[in-house]
Amino acid sequence: MPVSKSTIPKKSIMLPPGVYCPVISLYKSTKTQETDLDAMYKHCQYLVRSGQHGLVYQGTNGEAVLLSPSEKKDVLRTVRKAVTDLGVPDYPIVAGISGQSTNESIQLAKDAAEAGASFALLLPPSFWAKAVSEEALLQFYRDVADESPLPVVIYNFPGVTSGIDLNSDDLATLAQHPNIVATKLTCGNVGKAVRLTSKFSPEQFSVYGGSSDFLFPTLEAGGVGCVTGLANCFPKSTARIYDLWIEGKVDEARSLQNVVANAEWACKKSLALTKFGAGYFLGKKIGVEDERTFYPRRPYLPPSQKMKDWTVEVMSVLVEEEDAIPLKSFGKGVNGTK
């Protein structure tokens, strides 16, 4: 017996499909680690030129909980300028709006829209996890989506929300809201993705994987892309899996997926290793060579030398693939110049 397809209307604005980098926050080499907007401008432009289909700021990799509201707005204004200077002013910029209260998340959504974001990414509240009933969870998302000037993407990541995990029934219910357009499944549950894609078309509710080590299975299951921290280090290769799959080059996509999955293993260990990897493999390419720019914000610490060495060994399997892919050209070039 076939699964019943949803009859909800198509959403008026959908998050474009593809691979999105959840961009790390970069800091100045000072005691207070102010955000380094110049470095983030350069990093942004390199990610776009590398073929990333969109960028996410102020998510988990962006250390959102460690940034002030004013810092968040400054970063979003900076990266919107960066993509505009490249000649792609409408490039998708997703902003994390995750707060512990409904009011906070609504305000963050309004701030993000004012600063130039195009979509909003929202975790469930988790400060007092036992008090977050299913009813409270669904109402939270509906209330925020009602007031958000940006289309909302549900961010499901039990690892950072005290174990709160939206199941496929919860997500299917929320998919019916006209301003909730997609979900990012960092829970890594491909079965959940299949259940959702069996009910909804991508125009009704889009499904994204939460990392690139299962991008190929996500696409085969009916999903439309992923959000991957590894893209901070290897943006061309991660985007290339999607591009190959779309072009019908399935065997090539699967082959590249195998290498990417092994490189991404280092990102699973800690954000500090993702940031170190970005500095090691990408820093010189974007003209940001001070490794302290890629340190986590205090109180979190940079990795030990042993873990740095291990990260280089694990991620290096992808260097050859990355270097073989050319950068893309845009109308105005980097920093607005030909």
TrEMBL record:
One GO MF term attached to the UniProt entry: 4-hydroxy-tetrahydrodipicolinate synthase activity
A Pfam family recorded for this sequence: DHDPS
CDD domains hit by this protein: DHDPS-like
PANTHER family: DIHYDRODIPICOLINATE SYNTHASE, DIHYDRODIPICOLINATE SYNTHASE-RELATED
The name this protein goes by in its record: Dihydrodipicolinate synthase
Annotated organism of origin: Lophiotrema nucula
